[in-house]
Amino acid sequence: MKTLLTNLSLGLALIISGCATTETRISKNQAAFDSWPSEVQSSIRAGKVKIGFTTEQVRVTLGEPNRVYSRQSAEGESEVWAYFESGPKFSFGVGVGSGGYGGGASGGARYDRTENRFDEATRVVFTDGAVISIEQRTDT
What we know:
The protein is α+β, with helices and mostly antiparallel strands. The chain has one domain (21-136). Helices cover 33% and strands 36% of the residues. The protein has helices spanning 2-18, 22-28, 30-35, 38-45, 55-62; strands at 67-73, 76-84, 89-98, 103-112, 120-127, 130-136. The strands form 2 sheets. The chain has a 4-stranded antiparallel β-sheet, with helices on one face. It has a two-stranded antiparallel sheet with strand order 3-4. A hairpin with a 2-residue loop joins strand 1 and strand 2 (76-84). The relative contact order is 0.15.
C-alpha cells in the first residue's frame, strides 16, 4: 500500500511539473504580453489563438508546437504548427490463465503520459509570421 501511494504521488508530481500553463508562459514573456492590446491578452489568457496572432503570441498561448510543417499552395508558402492532444492516457487489462494443478488471474492498470504522435488536436497556419488559419479537431 505504501508503494502504491508513493508511486501515485510521484506520478502526480511529474504531471504537474511537466505541464507549462498559459500563466507560466505569460510570466516568462511579461514585457511582450504587457505591450499587446487588451483583446489579445484576454484571448491568450483564455487559451484561444486568433487570426492575426504573431508566432510569439501563439507560443505564449499554446506553447511550443509538437510538429512544424512547411506548406506550399497556389496562395504561396506557409508554415503549419501542429499541437497534439495532451493529457494522461489510462488503460486497463485483465488476464486469466490455468494450469494442470490450478489457475490464476491477474489484472493491471497503466497510466501513460506519452502522446499519440498522430493525434493532432490543433493546427495553426502562418503566412509572413501571422496566423491566417486555425484548425481544431472536432470529435463527432
